[in-house]
Amino acid sequence: MIITLKANAPREAADFVVEQALRFEGVSPRVHRFSGAGGEVIEVHLVGDTQKVPERLFADLPAVRRVVRVSQKYRLIGRHGATEAEVGFTYNDVRFDESEVVLCAGLCAVDTLEHVDATMRAVAAMGLRTTRMGAYKPRTSPYDFQGLGKDCLPWVFEAAGRHGIRVVSMEVCDIRHMEEIRAALEASGQATGVMLQIGTRNAQNFELLKAAGQQKVLPVLFKRGMGITLEESLNAVEYVASEGQPNIVFCLRGVKSHLGDPHRNLVDFAHVPVVRAQTRLPVCVDPSHSVGRLRIMPDGIPEMFHAAGQGVLTGASMVLVDLHPDPHQALCDGPQALALDWLPRLHDYVQRVRACYEDLLKSSVPVAPDHRRDLR
Ligand code: PEP
Ligand code: MN
Predict the structure, then answer these.
(1) Is residue 12 included in any domain, yes or no?
(2) Which residues pair with 170 in a beta bridge?
């Protein structure tokens, strides 16, 4: 059960709610404070056996805005009470929400300074302020390139600062990687910002998820587990939020199944509306790791664009894509990387599909809010 107090409600109101909740055996209240546009908002979350707790007990209090009974799962990331739930966050001047699509294109794996520089220049030339740069690469074979690790961080962050890149998405596989990133950011004078990417292979590495939540500074881009259910992935994200980091983007990147052949993974972008309905998280799609190859289709459009379009047309608000100045030389995932001259076309494609989605929302297709439940 979530009890939301009115904006700027007195502290004593929260204390009173806690006191009342403690009268019920097996119920433990936790107080959360959020600072929103209209001032501080306090929520008291009741955890445990809340069946016996009547909603009326709190709903009638003058300082209480609303009381929502939620299932045990997705307590923090869930979209409770629907319409007034806010989606997204701002980090380092970049807004991650549902108002526009953030295109995050860059190197799957950092290799040379020249490639980093050329990629960031191309990204910045499009007016984009986000990129991806993998320094720590979890590879299937121990003999494959493992990423340059912490040694490349100083020059990657310096280049990002120089090109006006505000957010670099970077996978971390270990708690130590988070510490190295934070130290390097500090040494760079916070030249840029980093979004911690939790890769599909670590989707249920609960200690890593908890650490990503505890650090509270850098937002998290969580990639759906490739061999687990959507529900399991959403529960994994809840670990990050429950440790204190609510700024999370949920990324769909396909699931492992040969039924997806000839694609690298079975593209799962039909889950974009599902994640949007169940959570307050902005949803990202990664056409590179799901499709896994670059093919131009008979209509002249790369199939990877078509896949990205499926996500954007259903409300995805971020696209994560592999880009490389010379894909043949890439040390990781070259076959799926777009050469730099594809970027303007991808940008145009994404904007056009987004415009279609916005147009759909203004059309006669959407059903009025009061009737939406009937369709579930
Ligand atoms: C990546 O984005 O570099 C990556 C390894 O993706 P995933 O974890 O989805 O395989
Ligand atoms: Mn990759």
Answers:
(1) yes
(2) 196
CA trace torsion 78, 84, 89, 93 (10° rounding): 170
Q: Which atom of ligand 1 lies closest to the CA of 254?
A: 9
Instruction: For residues 334 and 245, state if they share a domain.
Output: yes
Given a cut of 60, is residue 37 above it in pLDDT? no
Query: What's the pLDDT at 10?
Result: 87
Residue 75 lies in a domain: no
Residues 235 and 171 sit within 8 Å (Cβ to Cβ): no
pLDDT tens string 249-260:
999 999 999 999
Q: What angle do CA 226, 231, 233 make, to 5 degrees?
A: 45
User: Which tens digit of pLDDT belongs to each residue from 109-152?
Assistant: 999 999 999 999 999 999 999 999 999 999 999 999 999 999 99
Query: Which ligand is nearest the CA of 223, by number?
Result: 1
Q: Is the CB–ligand 1 distance for residue 224 below 6 Å?
A: no
Q: Tell me, yes or no, whether 78 lies in a domain.
A: no
Query: What is the torsion angle, in degrees rounded to the nearest 10, for the CA atoms of residue 2, residue 6, residue 9 and residue 14?
Result: -10
| 261: pLDDT strictly greater than 90 | yes
What residues sit around ligand 2, an ion, with C-beta below 5 angstroms? 108, 333
Ligand with the closest atom to the CA of 224: 1
Pair (161, 215) in one structural domain: yes
Pick from 119, 98, 102, 101: which is nearest to 110 by CA?
119
Same domain, 33 and 124: no
Looking at the structure, tell me whether residues 178 and 214 fall in a common domain: yes
Residues 6+ apart with CB under 8 A from 52: 24
Same domain, 60 and 93: no
CA of 174 to the centre of ligand 2 (A): 17
Q: 374 falls in which pLDDT band (50, 70, 90)? A: low
Residues 45 and 94 in one domain: no
Whether residues 217 and 311 share a domain: the answer is yes
Q: What is the pLDDT of residue 38?
A: 63
**In angstroms, rounded to a whole number, what is the distance separating the alpha carbons of residues 246 and 254?**
24
Nearest to 288 by CA among 325, 315, 251, 259: 251
CATH number (domain holding residue 300): 3.20.20.70
Number of domains in the chain: 2
The one-letter amino acid at 300: G
Residue 223 Cβ contacting ligand 1 at under 6 Å: yes
Amino acid identity of 370?
D
